[in-house]
Protein: Agmatine/peptidylarginine deiminase
Organism: Salinisphaera aquimarina
Amino acid sequence: MSARRLPPEWAHQQAMLLVWPRDGGDWGNGLAAARDVSAAMAAALCKRQQVILVCADDECAYSIAAHPLLAELGHARLKVVQVANDDIWARDTGPLTVIENGARLFLDFRFDGWGGQFDAGHDDRLTAALHAAGAYGAGTLERREHTLEGGSIEVNGDGALLTTERCLIAGRRNANIDRDAAQSLLANAFGVDTVHWLAHGDLIGDDTDGHIDTLARFAATDTIVYQGCDDPADAHHAPLTAMAAELAALRDRHDTPYRLVELPLPAPIHDPDDGHRLPAGYANFLIANGCVLAPAFNDPADEPAHAILAGLFPNREIIPIDSRALIRQHGGLHCAAMQIPAIPSAS
């Protein structure tokens, strides 16, 4: 294996990066609700680790200081940094932090608004701007000119990376890159020796071209938890069943099948304005120090989904966070956060 390593999400974290929803962005009349979700995430995380909360302007800074959940914290572990941004999806705009020779290297891939769908000029510069401000602590910045989002990859900490063909090699990013070139890129950047490619699986309403963090996640080096659908009448049933079959055929670097755990699917949630179905699911959970933030949708499937996560992470508190405000903009808890791993000697 390479000396370079992308730690899995359950490795000890120094901080979690969040971005405060800004006025004048895409949130419209959902801004207050989105800010409430961001505040709930920050409040839960600040009990366990530092939170780097990015604000776009003075109005955002004022609303952070005035929010009841954040005012109660006294900002002891809350580090507010003012940097221009386009949207809150830190998983895709923040750094992918690898460990090399005992030090952190913050990889800054290009971000182009998920294949040019949305304005992304500020977000493409976010990682570098935060590094220049000293927000991450010790570590070197490495700019990468390929386009890659954090939500498109999952690693198990034992040489394996899980991703989707539709996003990395069959989508709108990185024209003319083929599987061999993509595999080489991933191995070089993250120190992995096994890349698992999924051809199936999608959530209706997803505009990321099939980010893996909405579909299947490593919960341990040998365990994958994935989004299922047990209703044959649901449009998700066929693609998610095909994805489950692909997952069952995977083998790790030791030629061993993974332990697979299925998550239920919430009932359809539709956009209140135009009625289109939103990409609601439970795979978009967030692992942090001592806890897992779990999506909640005021749905009967919430409780069994959270019980499954509790079984997978018995030493972490499962904290439900109402994600309906975020799903209106086609994102979730994991999409809205990026962990900054601790330097190994400090973990």
